[in-house]
Amino acid sequence: MTEVWKLKTSDGEEYEFVTVSTPGIYNYDTRYHVLKGAYGHHGMEVKHTSDPVPGVAGEELRETNYEIREMYMPIRIQGTSPADFTENKQNLRRSLRPTTEAQLWITNEQGETRVLYCRYNSGFAEAADDDKRGPTFIHIPLRLIAHDPYFYDIPANEIIHETNFVASTAVFFDAYTFLSDDDSDPWGRIGSSSIGRIWTVNNPGDEDAYPVWTIIGPGRAPLLKNLTTGKSFYLNYVLSETETVVIDMRENQTASHTVESTVIFEGDTITANLRKYMDQVMRNFWALEPGANELAIEFNSGAEGAAVNFSLLPRFQGV
Question: Are 98 and 225 found together in one domain?
Fold first, then answer.
């Protein structure tokens, strides 16, 4: 099996790159290899080509300093006629927009797949050089920007943990005491007005991975703590019975970290930003380090259905 690169765009298209030479399909520069096809409402056939992978494009991507988020992936767009070529270029251009996210899915020779989240930066305005264009083709210096320059595990492998009022087996404790670092109960504690848990979660990735928390009411004052790193997040807020709060700690959301409430009121869904309820000291959007992390949560609550859950997608340096 060779490596397979697939670019998935926001409008539902999937562009799959062949990693070995496929003779007889088009007369193209031997440095370029066929982009096998697209699947979606454009319905394009075998008309797009790209650099060999793993080759120049793959090496440049892997050797790039991770602080540099732009990657260069020259591609060839081709048609069976000038009109067909123009349509193909327009379709691909429509699929790649600076304001929408694309996903580069790479499957290595061992069958492992990881995802790089990116968006279009430049390339359609110019050919790679003057001799790389013709009536039915063009080579363009496609540049993509990765808002987080690491690879992610595929969404199907997302790590999910749930802690709810009914499922926890626990010891009663007082409603005003947060979980302490020396609590040894691995499954947590629950009382008439509180829910809490200390447990170890493994991050199998190469890099820090940031969780997305979902807190379900009714209840008050969720405390989310990574005992391994000493980082804490505390929200001084009371959730109603119909309310859900999502705390998105992902690093690639740094510029707009969200603490968002959704309430169902008389059949309507109402959303609000809760950042003003964040504690001034314990307001870290913290990560799980690679390997074992000891986590602690406490959520004061007084009814069944209250829960503190989180999901985590591991991050890697390569494929």
Answer: no
